[in-house]
Amino acid sequence: MAPTTAKIDPQLYGPKRRVAVIPYKDAPFLYGFLSSASKTLSKAAGYVELNSSSAPTLPVIFGAQYPKPGRIEGEKGADAGKSTYADFSKVNNPDKNYKRIAIPQTKKLPTASNKSIPVYVEIRDPTGPPDKFFKYVFRVNTNRLAYVKDAFKDLGIVEIDSKVNPLELCYGVNYPKPSHACTEKTLEKDGETFTSQICIFVATSKIDNLPDGWTIKTGKNSRIILPIS
């Protein structure tokens, strides 16, 4: 008997491309990811194609733990059983032959613990419009606060409390990441003093006007639009 060759589904194993969707209404950024979805599923999901011939009008974030877009799934035809992240408008009102299977994950505000506090810095494209930015969330260990908290304002670091709008925040982002600002502090342990470098994320708007004693370590030219190669 002649050997049989399994048919490979191109939507599962085909080449992936960079795409993005608006995760929720009035989101200040696009949620970017890689997809090999078909043309019909891509259209039903409302993809923004990220390629060399077009540039997105909003910042693009990749790999964020929060927020997450909703998802749709095909019900009939070639896309039956295939799912993907989708633009919020397509999640709220799916095209014919598609259905919503997950709503966007939003309105989640990180809280402080006895080990760390949540903060954010704004990331902006140095060459882009001044009103296009997003708020990158990270945590600062409480044992480091004494060395950096006095510089929060000058570094553009904002503590997150109940007054912060969670829809402006994103965290667990793989790309882009803020620049690091570093300073040297004299520490003491077991009766001995020593010098240690302390580093923390800094807002894009503060990079060229750091407080005395602080310098940029890496990522000064971080961009919020994914470079297309």
Key terms:
single chain; 229 residues; mainly beta; four-stranded mixed β-sheet; elongated; disordered N terminus
What's the arrangement of secondary structure elements?
Elements: H1 10-13, E1 17-21, E2 30-35, H2 39-45, E3 48-49, E4 60-62, E5 71-74, E6 83-85, H3 88-92, E7 98-102, E8 116-124, E9 133-141, H4 142-148, H5 152-155, E10 158-159, E11 169-171, E12 179-189, E13 192-202, E14 215-216
Parallel strand pairs: 2-4, 9-11
Antiparallel strand pairs: 1-2, 1-3, 5-6, 5-7, 8-9, 8-10, 12-13, 12-14
Written description of the protein model:
The chain is mainly beta and 229 residues long. It is built from five helices and 14 strands. A four-stranded mixed sheet has the order 3-1-2-4, with no helix packed on it. Strand 1 (17-21) and strand 2 form a beta hairpin. The termini are far apart.
How would you concisely characterize the structure shown here?
The chain has 229 residues and is mostly beta strands. The protein has helices spanning 10-13, 39-45, 88-92, 142-148, 152-155; strands spanning 17-21, 30-35, 48-49, 60-62, 71-74, 83-85, 98-102, 116-124, 133-141, 158-159, 169-171, 179-189, 192-202, 215-216. Strand 1 and strand 2 form a beta hairpin.
